[in-house]
Amino acid sequence: MASKVATDRMAGRMRSSLHPALVFAAIFVVIFLLHAPLLRLPYFWDEAGYYVPAARDLLAHGSLIPRTTVSNAHPPLVMAWLALWWKVVGYTPAVTRAAMLVIAAFSLLGVFRLAEVVANTRVAMAATVCTALYPVFFAQSSLAQVDLAAAGLTFWALAAYFEKRPLATASWFCLAVLAKETAVLAPLALAAWELLGLGLRSKRRIAGLWKPHAPELKTLSDFLAPVFVLGAWYVFHYLRTGYVFGNPEFFEYNVASTLNPVRFVLALVLRVWESFGYMHLWLLTAGMLLAMLLPPIKDMGLERRRIAIAVQSSFLGIIMTYVVAMALIGGAVLARYMLTAVPLVMILGAATLYRRLHHWRLAVAVVAGAFVLAWFWNPPYGFSPEDNLAYRDYLILHQDGERFVEARYPMAHVLTAWPASDELTRPWLGFVTRPVQVVRIENFSLDQVLSAAEFRDHFEVALVFSTKYEPRNPLLDRWIWWTEWKRRFFGFHRDLPPAAATRVLNGKIVYSEERAGQWIAVIEMQRGEWINAQSTQPEMRPQLRQF
Fold first, then answer.
1. 3-state secondary structure of 298
2. What pTM was estimated for this model as a whole?
3. Residues 148-158: pLDDT tens digits?
4. CATH architecture classification, 390-525
């Protein structure tokens, strides 16, 4: 007993005496400087497709329901934050990215605070650095999307929960669900864990999973508040739009089409990988597991404090809830959906290394260095460019290609696919200075390009680009069954390379560029004279592929 008291006192002395504002300022300055070369980039993919248009509608019309894009029923907190910044500072991509970096810094402060509450300041610093440098978190830090904000507010809620501050817990969780609806998973996971603890509290062998935070029925109200808040938002959305969970296409893509047992198993494997191994995260996971084979280090005769078993079990419950839920829903298995779970793994890993390795700082430095390497190094399998700096390559390619089209073919009808169709028709996205007329197809697969060739008299130019990142020598695509499963369950297709698309469309390549496995090309149609009449093919609305 005396040993435990002494250990707890030592942990208390290791708590940071720095004011949270100073920690926030330090975090913001560092990540702002790291992101400085990225601040003027135009908007990427789902930024351009939904979040920025929705925020602009809120700024222009005061409407919580988007007008210039189909509503996906995402709660409006982040869009309101962006609209406020644009109102005060002005509308530019740099302002948008600075506003998102404020959210990222606040989220990292939440990671620091949570780790400090459950462990100590040294672990908190290590976990915060690793989280900030983790490629997915780093890339998302300046992108105008909602997953990182929801994760950050959840970390603040968890810190309040473990400090036994019920009002603060409920408040942070309510803000989290107003950032993104899937943030409700964390309070639901904790509620389920508390109920399970109440049912098994008579079982002495496993009661330690809930101590020292003994489950109490009254704490469940902390977790019901965000459910009611989210429900109120959905009622409001239904009254305004006539549907609850977003437009029918969105619901079909992200929920109805995902309820297949085989797809669920495949997505479950991918979610586990994203939580414990993706983008060099496996180094931390492996280091944590190997360190657990070593005895705890003793300082002044006392073992270094570990994160309480009750806290660890709560973390694992939240992680597994996200793994299962995000495998069940979400048409695209995007790594950003796991941004709430991964920092919890960081905290557990950093605490384990600190407790059991003498050279734990070196181990953390190796992990952090591997994360930085993954900013620039693309894995040998298909992945989303928004998971590291590949998104920058995409944006530079599209800026260059679309400016070429605008300069050389200002009056032409341009065949292309989403999101380039929005990039060309909406100058405020930052790619062109005036709208370009667009004829849209879904992608650049063989079937789609052949279909476009049948009405080639309705466009003069084609802007083709890689809609998915494909490595030169893919690690898994050598197995035909894997490619077939991707095509069947995850919307996989192969884009025709520019030379092949040129032959199908009977044109010639007048511009092409490639960067790190991504490409773009402009194809001019070959015929006697251009058809300058208005295209009879209506532009199709893009299918929004975010959850």
1. strand
2. 0.91
3. 999 999 999 99
4. 3-Layer(aba) Sandwich (3.40)
